[in-house]
Amino acid sequence: MDALPGDSDWAQSAGIELTQQDPRPGLPTPYRTTVRVLKDRTHLYLWIDSVDPEFGKRSVHTLERDSDQTNDDHVTVVLDTFGNHRVGYVFQVNAGGARTDGLISPASPDPNYDWDGIWRAKVRQTADGWRAEIAIDTRSLQFRKGLDRWGLNVQRYVPRAQLSLQWASITLNSLIFDLSRMGVLNGTRGLEQGHGLEVSPYVLMNHDSLGNRQSAQIGGDVRYNLTPELAAIVTVNPDFAEAEADAQQINLTRFSLSLPEKRRFFLEGSNQFNFAAGLSQTGDLTSTFIPFYSRRVGLLNGETVRLDEGVKLIGQTGPWSIGALDVQTGPSGLDGRPINLFVGRLTYDVDDHLRVGTLVTRGDPTGQTHNLFAGVDAVWHTATFRGDKNLTLSGWAARTQDDGLQGRHSGWGVYAQYPNDLWNWNASVNVFGDALNPALGFLPRPGTHQYDVYIDYRPRPTSDALNWARQFFYQFEVQQIDDLHGTTQTRRIFTAPFNVDAESGEHYEFDWIPDYEALTEPFEIVDGVTLPAGRYHFNRYRVETQSSDARPWRIGSVVELGDFYGGRLTQYMPFVDWTAREGKLRFELQNETDVGRLPQGRFIQRLYQLKLSYSFSPDLIVSSFTQYDSGQGHVGLNARLHWIVAPGRDFYLVFNHGVETSPTNPIARYAPISNAVIAKLRWDFRS
Q: Are 562 and 568 in contact (CB under 8 A)?
């Protein structure tokens, strides 16, 4: 951090003050926050001074890179480097010095926090609070050459008061990640990306004690900025050993579940491939459609497929945004042949509100068919509807060509969203043909019409009798899935008659969920328990409680119970988190236990997940993730040491250990299935 400006440099920069945005916009607070900005040829510097009369009560739950800072005292910087209110960058620093960064795209209201930029941050305690000093290397950003006005917004959050301060747009309807509500940072012309060349080689050593095998591997990425706005990335023999293990999930549905992407090469520029709005809503019955699901590349039936090389083109040129990916796999598919996979995305900004685009994918990771997907989409957004209200409208249409399927190959959908403080609603209609088969996408329920209407009335009480409550959430949602002939397959009605956030930070919720499912064929819900075809009506009830997020201890539980396919299902989901005051030591334990009592049989499914981490500093962290899934009978441990030697230069030491349990065979009750140690060094060079 020696390159950071000194106090005399900062004194030359005029400060801007943040203003309370939530819960009482515009009113004064004791948490005065001042922001100063400087630049040189290759860096943008921010100095954020945060007054805190009770600094000893600050909340710091983590020092890990890219961890969730929602419950921490933290500051957020958002940059719109193209000035088009469409794509942007997020940088967060908490009071302990932890760094989190991400990408913003039109397709999602929340950033993709899996992207990693090159930047530094230092936090120090001051006489009246804390200060964050941030240095963002603009050579790791894409921006419009010659543009002298970037979009900028800065936010500070104080969790124990549930209070937000913001620079631009301080209404309750304003979201910090809404690029259309940003302020303007003048004087950005002259920032450079160097020569635009970045070489990132790696070397890896692997020892597998089960097979008594040792191996070494080299590879890496080369990135070149064709223009300041458009970059080409070439990867050779990529490896993703440092990626954290996937979180296991209990799945009692008939359909597969999606998992987040964690591999570096696929994360960079991933927002360029987002399609439409209102799709890809994880956990929803409806609207679960991802035309390009990057986990289809390099992963097949849960097994890793070697990637030999890949090329990616990401960026912008004028009003056009471009994303292209071409990957050559090693021997894969059913016949063991190498497979070439391609994705192309092109969008055009018609004006400040409307973006139109197209997405094309080619190839089938299984090698079974010649598959082609082509789709078009449009997203319109405004933050000034009826004054300062948010409104988003979106539509899409797509078609696939596949020599292995007969039927309707097309699909389409429309979506409207009104995400505001008092009223938050959305509605969607999506139609998926029975032969719509995006081989590089994720579509668990083709051959359906899907409808969704969600309404959330969220008053903030003002009476003395309710002064304990911060905000109520009266929610109602209807989701319905029909087949192409109009016969209902699934209907779910969600109501939340009591749902409240307390002023002290606690959350209490009670939900009533009537469900309907029509099984057209028998369904084996767990091993040995098969449900017969038929129509099932059931009422379910859900209770959720959670302590304040601002405290070192965070305890909560969700209990869902009621009818289930002619029987009963009770689900217990407790969790407990503890963090040392400075955020160095962290403990997270969560459990899900599903107890089913059905006419066809009884079952118990258990999932335990334990995360431990110790941070010597924000740049040196040891962590572990242990999981036990009774359904699969597996215990898995993923332990990592991550040393950030310098921005863009990382050392990883990874230990993976897996055990298969067999309660019916005492001799082989705990049989190891994996036991490997991996050391990896990645070192970026740029000019």
A: yes
Cβ burial of 154 (10 Å; 0-12, 13-18, 19+) is: buried
642: nearest Cα among 311, 233, 264, 237: 264
DSSP state of 9: H
Residue 630 in this model has a pLDDT that exceeds 50: yes
What's the CA gap between 458 and 204, in Å, rounded? 52
Banded pLDDT at 101 (limits 50, 70, 90): very high
Amino acid found at 633? G
Could you tell me which residues are beta bridge partners of residue 314?
Answer: 231, 323
In 504-633, beta strands by DSSP E: 507-519, 523-526, 529-531, 534-546, 553-564, 567-579, 585-598, 601-617, 620-629
Percent of residues, the chain, with pLDDT higher than 70: 96
Mention every residue, 6+ apart, whose C-beta is less than 8 A from residue 389: 173, 383, 418, 420
Query: From the centroid of its chain, how far is CA 557?
Result: 23
Please report the pLDDT score of residue 284 as a whole number.
59
Here the tokens at position 81 are 């480097």
Neighbouring CB atoms inside 10 A of 568's CB total: 16
Does residue 119 contact residue 132 with C-beta atoms inside 8 Å? Answer: no
Q: Please compute, for residue 326, the number of CA atoms within 13 A of its CA located in the half-sphere on the CB side.
A: 4
With a CB cutoff of 8 Å and minimum separation 6, the contacts of 395 are: 276, 377, 378, 412, 413, 414, 415
143-169 pLDDT tens trace: 887 889 999 999 999 999 999 999 999
Establish how many alpha carbons lie within 13 A of residue 62's alpha carbon, considering only the half-sphere containing its beta carbon.
Answer: 24
d(CA 99, CA 508): 31
What pLDDT is stored for residue 14 in this prediction?
A: 84
Place of tokens 């960064």: 101
Give, in degrees to the nearest 5, the angle at Cα 221 between 220 and 226.
160
Q: How far apart are the first and last CA of the chain?
A: 20
pLDDT in tens, 365-405: 988 889 999 999 999 999 899 988 999 999 999 999 988 78
As given in the structure block, the two tokens for residue 124 are 């120090």
Greatest Cα pair distance, the chain, in angstroms, is 76
Neighbours of 211 (CB within 10 A): 10
Instruction: Spell out the alpha helix ranges (H) of 540-652.
Output: none
Q: Is the distance from CB of 258 to CB of 293 less than 8 angstroms?
A: yes
CA–CA separation, 226 and 607 (whole Å): 48
> What gap in Å lies between CA 473 and CA 479, rounded to an integer?
19
- Would you place residue 354 in the very low, low, confident or very high pLDDT band (cuts 50, 70, 90)? very high
Buried b (16+ CB within 10 A) or exposed e, 448-463: bbbbbebebebebeee
The backbone region for 429, taken as left when phi is positive above 0, alpha when psi lies in -120 to 50, beta otherwise, is beta
Structural domains of the chain, with CATH: 7-186 (2.60.40.1190), 269-453 (no CATH)
- 589, HSE (Cβ side, Cα atoms, 13 Å): 5
107 pLDDT above the threshold of 60: no
Q: CA 97 to CA 61: how far, in whole Å? A: 11
Mean pLDDT of the chain: 90
